[in-house]
Write a structure and sequence with these properties.
90 residues, mainly alpha, 5 helices, 78% helix
């Protein structure tokens, strides 16, 4: 993927965010109770950190970070996927 080659730091951040999200979802599945899983110590901090990282990644995509071979529409689609997947709004 072009973004992963062009923005390796942001790609690494996204991979970490994705792993955190999957870990949280695994806890929900194991406990069969979203409220208990969501109120586990450290979950809020993890989600806050993930959101900050996603915002940083989004800014990199918007600015372009020096790459021009990705059409602007792809950046918007990437942003939409992140937002839809995480359910984040500003």
């Amino acid at each position: 993927m072009i973004v992963f080659r062009t923005l390796p730091g942001d790609a690494k951040l996204f991979t970490a965010v994705d792993k955190s999200w999957k870990d949280i979802m695994r806890r929900v599945e194991d406990r069969r109770n979203a409220l208990k899983a969501a109120t586990t110590t450290g979950t809020l901090e993890t989600l806050t950190s993930c959101r900050q990282n996603l915002e940083k990644i989004q800014k990199s995509l918007e600015v372009g970070s020096g790459f021009t071979d990705i059409p602007p529409k792809s950046c918007r689609v990437s942003a939409y996927i992140c937002t839809a997947h995480w359910g984040l709004t500003h």
